[in-house]
């Protein structure tokens, strides 16, 4: 296999595959380009290795880019597998959705139709097409991180014949939960994470309030021209669910002001906030995130906004940070999301044609699954994950509070343990 990238110890080749835009009308002539990267240990290129397909989190997240030393789970997996790293449709190098993409539609309905083509059903259909056309129909193992676990259950529901075994980390969704219930729980978990954060860094409570007061009293602009509102500042709470997120947020807040007079915000702080809250890398995350909780009986229609209590108001003190919630105001205030506004509102009110999970099929599951549930996960509710785990035969789970949501990234031993659970 030719190597396209000079990274010691790795043989890497890049590929593309044309797939239908709309899998419900595959002969319409409209197509997308699916990019995927095949990685193998350089000393095992000529071996017949089993395949491992990585299902990235998100939605809207591209696959990790390999380095000589990372990510650790990848190098662990390469001891046993040939690894496929796809950029899911609309992300990275797979016909990436941009501001210009959405601005070209002449109606909100047309934009909504387009966004509807990027859901879990379509992603799984892409991968089944890839498996059948490029890998001669060989079954593969999947590793689903976060939203990748949601995709795994869609895969198990509608195309289990393509799977030999599945690993899931931090991504067992509720099979039938109301979106409002999901976000009621999410807001509570964010509050608990914030209190734990402030117990570690008590001085940051006053810093957070001081920044919010400054933003209420001044028209603060980010380097791209967007106004930094209090509610955009609050969304930095998304960081608190990752392993080093608390430390990263603390160091960011420490240098928010230029000096002790607190008369102006540091330009470097504004650059960081713009990057962390701007959605430039993954606008699809904002556009379809809430829709991943939809089902044919229950519209989302901005469930996160409905479940946001008064304690999250921008004038409430102490100020509460928010987390992994997408709110309608983001499509009015964030430059990268503004072209999505009409389409997203249209999608939010659209009934889902087919459920993402087939409870009957999952109840008859025969594919071995090993899942890691993070007990203190800020993004995916552990109680709902446990209920799902108990409902699926041949699923073994490991629950721990040793890691945050990115335990797979933190420790290659996570992958080793999941593999051992099924090897046993």
From TrEMBL:
SUPFAM superfamilies per the UniProt record, alphabetical: alpha/beta-Hydrolases
Care to name a GO molecular-function term for this sequence?
peptidase activity
Q: What is this protein called?
A: Alpha/beta hydrolase
Q: Which UniProt keywords apply?
A: Hydrolase
Q: Which family does it belong to?
A: Belongs to the peptidase S33 family.
In terms of domain of life, where is this protein from?
Answer: Bacteria
**Which example biological process does GO assign this protein?**
proteolysis
Name all AB hydrolase-1 domain ranges.
50-198
Q: Which organism is it from?
A: Halomonas sp. RT37
């Amino acid at each position: 296999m030719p190597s396209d990238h000079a990274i010691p110890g790795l043989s890497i080749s890049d590929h593309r595959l044309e797939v239908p835009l709309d899998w419900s009308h595959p002969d319409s002539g409209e197509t997308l380009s699916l990019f995927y990267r095949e990685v193998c240990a350089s000393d095992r290129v000529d071996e017949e290795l089993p395949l491992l397909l990585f299902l990235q989190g998100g939605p809207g997240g591209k696959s990790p880019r390999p380095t000589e030393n990372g990510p650790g789970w990848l190098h662990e997996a390469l001891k046993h597998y040939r690894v496929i790293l796809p950029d899911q449709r609309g992300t990275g190098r797979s016909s990436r959705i941009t501001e210009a993409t959405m601005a070209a539609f002449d109606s909100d309905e047309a934009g909504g139709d387009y966004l509807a083509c990027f859901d879990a059903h379509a992603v799984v259909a892409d991968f089944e097409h890839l498996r059948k056309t490029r890998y001669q129909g060989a079954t593969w193992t999947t590793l689903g991180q976060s939203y990748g676990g949601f995709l795994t259950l869609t895969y198990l529901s509608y195309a289990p014949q393509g799977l030999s075994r599945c690993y899931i980390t931090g991504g067992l969704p509720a099979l039938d939960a109301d979106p409002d219930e999901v976000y009621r729980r999410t807001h509570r978990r964010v509050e608990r994470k914030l209190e734990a954060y402030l117990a570690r860094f008590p001085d940051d409570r006053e810093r957070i309030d001081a920044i919010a007061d400054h933003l209420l009293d001044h028209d603060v602009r980010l380097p791209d021209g967007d106004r930094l509102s209090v509610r955009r500042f609050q969304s930095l709470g998304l960081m608190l669910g990752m392993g080093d997120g608390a430390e990263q947020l603390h160091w960011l807040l420490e240098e928010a002001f230029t000096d002790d007079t607190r008369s102006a915000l540091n330009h470097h702080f504004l650059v960081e906030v713009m990057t962390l809250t701007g959605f430039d890398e993954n606008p699809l995350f904002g556009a379809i995130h809430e829709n991943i909780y939809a089902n044919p009986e229950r519209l989302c229609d901005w469930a996160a906004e409905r479940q946001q209590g008064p304690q999250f108001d921008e004038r409430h003190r102490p100020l509460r940070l928010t987390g992994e919630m997408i709110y309608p105001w983001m499509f009015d205030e964030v430059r990268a999301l503004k072209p999505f506004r009409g389409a997203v509102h249209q999608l939010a009110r659209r009934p889902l044609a087919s459920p993402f999970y087939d409870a009957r099929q999952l109840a008859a599951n025969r594919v071995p699954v090993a899942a890691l549930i993070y007990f203190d996960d800020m993004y995916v509710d552990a109680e709902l994950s446990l209920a799902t785990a108990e409902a699926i035969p041949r699923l073994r789970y490991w629950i721990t509070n040793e890691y945050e949501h990115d335990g797979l990234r933190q420790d290659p031993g996570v992958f080793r343990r999941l593999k051992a659970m099924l090897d046993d």
